[in-house]
Amino acid sequence: MPTTFPPDVRQFVENAIASGEYQSEDDVLISAVRVLRELVERHEALRRDIEQGIASLDRGEGTPLDVSEIKGELSARWNQRRSAG
User: Fold this and answer.
1) 55-71 pLDDT, tens per residue?
2) pTM here?
3) Which of 25, 30, 38, 82 shows its CA 20 to 30 Å from the CA of 3?
4) Residue 11: is it exposed, middle or buried by C-beta count within 10 angstroms (0-12/13-18/19+)?
5) Would you give the distance in Å from CA 50 to the centre of its chain?
6) Residue 3: left (phi > 0), alpha (psi -120 to 50), or beta?
7) Do 17 and 24 form a contact (C-beta atoms < 8 A)?
């Protein structure tokens, strides 16, 4: 399938081939489409999860968030990562 890229994309493709990461334009395009497909699938899954969450809240199944607890957990994780690195 012949492809015409805008100049910025053309340069990116040429650089990717020149670096040896890809052998041809087709290889770059195949990789890009695979990444796009994965992104679309993840986006669809996230959308479904959000819709399920909203439906759950609409049924009254939700529980209020404790912002202080969330901040504490995030702070503990952050401190743990900092001390591990």
Assistant:
1) 999 999 988 889 999 99
2) 0.64
3) 38
4) exposed
5) 16
6) beta
7) yes
